[in-house]
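User: Can you help me understand a structure? I only have the sequence.
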Amino acid sequence: MRILKILGKIALSGIIGLIFFALLDIGMWYFPPGRGWAPWKWESSGPVAVGNNYSVELLTRTAHLFLAEYDQKLVVYGGTPREGKKRGTIDLHMNTGGRTHILIYLTKTHNGNVVLLKDRFGVGRVNLDNLKIEERAEAKKLDKSIFIGTFSGEAYPLKFVPSSVWPEEETTKMIKE
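Assistant: Let's start by predicting it. Here is the structure, written out as tokens:
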């Protein structure tokens, strides 16, 4: 009889603990903290000037608790050299390969200014003038494009490394084509 009372108290304590942590988890999703790791918190590289009065900022956040998958966004800023403003945000393809390097190129096409984002999955094309993302192409020689630098997610935190620090030839080897 005494053993049943002890087992009953243990079971009751376990149920109360489960309810407490379930409510805590729900509360954390609805009222996220302002600091620390959270799946809803976007990390930024900071705006990077790419030329022709445009700047871009790469935002990433974890897409999965256990896998190295990241949602990515590109924020585009434009305007005059003294008065820039946010032009828009573009959702990029999910990074399913963990922390990687993304090489940034700027090129001018008949459609306007285009930023090329090259990683080990291919080359993403983002038109800065109309804020449209074009389909990925195979990673190949990027003629008539200017290498700006690299978004490096290999080490925490996400950072931008200019072409004067990591030349194009060196970073191309890092993306494991």
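Now, to help you interpret it: The two ends are 69 Å apart (CA to CA). Residues 43-174 form one domain. Let me know which part you'd like to focus on.
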